[in-house]
Amino acid sequence: MAVKEIVADIRHLSGEVYYPSPEVLERAYIKDYPSLYQRAMQDLEAFWAERAEELEWFRKWDRVLDDSNKPFYKWFVGGKINICYNAVDRHMKTWRKNKVALYWEAENGERRVLSYYDLYREVNRFANVLKALGIRKGDRVTIYMPRIPELPIAMLACARIGAIHSVVFAGFSVEALHTRIEDSKSRLVITADGGYLNGRIVETKRTVDEAVRRSPSVEHVLVVRRTRHEVPMEPGRDYFYDELARLPFAQGECPVEETDAEDPLYILYTSGTTGAPKGQVHVHGGYAVYIYTTMKWVFDIKDEDIWWCTADPGWVTGHSYIVYAPLMLGATSVMYEGAPTYPYPDRWWSIVEKYGVTVLYTTPTAIRGLMRFGDEWPNRRHLSSLRLLGTVGEPINPEAWRWYYRVIGKGRCPIMDTWWMTETGGFMITPMPCVPLKPGSATLPFPGIRADVVDENGNPCPPGVEGYLVIQNPWPGMSRTLYGDPDRYVKTYWSKYPGWFFTGDSARRDEDGYFYIIGRVDDVLKVSGYRLGTAEIESALVAHPAVAEAAAIGLPHEVKGEGIHCYVILKAGYTPSEALAEELRQHVAQLIGPIARPEAIHFVDKLPKTRSGKIMRRVLRARALGLPEGDLSTLEE
Ligand code: ATP
Ligand code: MG
């Protein structure tokens, strides 16, 4: 059975391995991953039921898993639970009522501190206002807001009354926002007058105005005041939140809706890295259990921690690990409004120092971006509060991993490279502090997750051989469907291998069973019959001292089938030249093999990325071939 292979003796591993220190092990909730994994797999339902006991239910479930209508699995059937109640109300009964829930810092240094009790009052007020605007259980609400405390407050308020939120990242264009409002048929849009980024105002309200012009479903627009600059308000449709929040109906407690475990909590559209975004639907019950458990064990969250996830609440990382999981765990979080380099490239490091951040969770793109400025910026700040680091979103290049480990973590902090997707709700393949690490590997599956790398026919690939990453059993955090399009849900995820979840990512495992994510299946290159991952080529380039960032794509080649074309951003102090291009071609050939020698190196100043920082290789490919660029709604400006 697959279980044995996965839990190969992790005390004796091959390659570049970082074993947990005694201090890390001492403090960790989970000290023995292999036996926990084994136990979970022996009885999945018992395992998840035990996890679910840690949350507060209005009514316990009758059945843990209902798989009578595959792939539309149901979890904790018959159970009644509300995620907002678990994130907020629950803490009113304990000392955490007066604990800091959120430290918020604006770009200009302005601060807000919210205790759990503050949060409780704010969420109730917001929920009362939503109700006054006619929002009821099951209604969709689009949220398009800068990174201010009212964003999580609005999400929690929706959850409280059983409304379904659809958060759209506030950097998205009018068109992207419009299609998401349309798709979800939202009755209300919540926004702010504006936000700040790099010292400038982001015109969120004006974008909303344009987006809703063609959206007949929208009845009201609720505007939180942030910048207080002049914005147009349409009488009868638009309201300032603070004006409504002062009225009598907004005062006092707003009763919590006793939602069903399977009631939808939110719709969230995927990043659109590979194509048109899909509206993933997550629910109150199983999702809560899954993200609570994954965050607790992977980031080993305790009461004394200061947690900082640098993502935007507008993508799934923010939903699960800025808003819902940290609050359910009663953790103290940091939220920062603006850009990482504003006004200087040490802004993030100054925040770590100022709040004594103990666990930092960010993306490879951010790490590579900050690495470009050199070690001096982090080195002039005290980062000694950190004990654990994390990354998500793309494969992390070993070079960037080592920098993060050495310069930010000072060689003391294990890095949790968490592989997961909007579809999965939470971490899937990820270390825990007790699991030995290998740079560039997301290590092993979370307990309760059976994952493998398989070939076209579903047979496991031998070590070192690349194949399709699949998940072979259901888990409570899985998205339940694509909003309004169940057929596409079945077709996209459950058709290639019936009974298994098809991730769309390619990966390989090493001789120890460790997983290496190579990239999207759509991005894999075939050069002279060999399959090559973009991540491998890009990591080779990033390992060269001149290179800050790189993207590799395949373009048609008469002889080889596909030829490798690379787009490279140089580090400060290096200038493009034919000689350097040749040096880089040789460097890649040397590190990976002659087969991987790029046809061409293009020096660029920018790469097309999604708003969440992922390289959009399909856009590079389309541009190079002179083809239509496809859905660009999530492209960064
Ligand atoms: P779309 O599905 O619309 O193309 P997307 O896949 O970028 O967009 P997300 O759900 O935000 O949308 O991202 C999930 C993907 O991100 C994964 O499928 C994987 O390719 C990548 N990813 C996430 N975490 C990691 C990680 N730790 N290592 C490697 N890749 C990762
Ligand atoms: Mg995806």
From TrEMBL:
Gene3D superfamilies, per database record: 3.30.300.30, N-terminal domain of ligase-like (3.40.50.12780)
Domain AMP-dependent synthetase/ligase span(s) in chain numbering: 91-475
GO biological processes: acetyl-CoA biosynthetic process from acetate
Pfam family, any one: ACAS_N
Molecular function GO labels: acetate-CoA ligase activity; AMP binding; ATP binding
The UniProt record lists the keyword Isomerase: no
Boundaries of every AMP-binding enzyme C-terminal domain copy: 536-614
Highest rank taxon of the organism: Bacteria
GO cellular component labels: cytosol
Coiled coil: none
Keywords per UniProt: Acetylation, ATP-binding, Ligase, Nucleotide-binding
EC number(s) recorded for this UniProt protein: 6.2.1.1
Record bears the keyword ATP-binding: yes
Family of the protein in this entry: Belongs to the ATP-dependent AMP-binding enzyme family.
Name this protein carries in UniProt: Acetate--CoA ligase
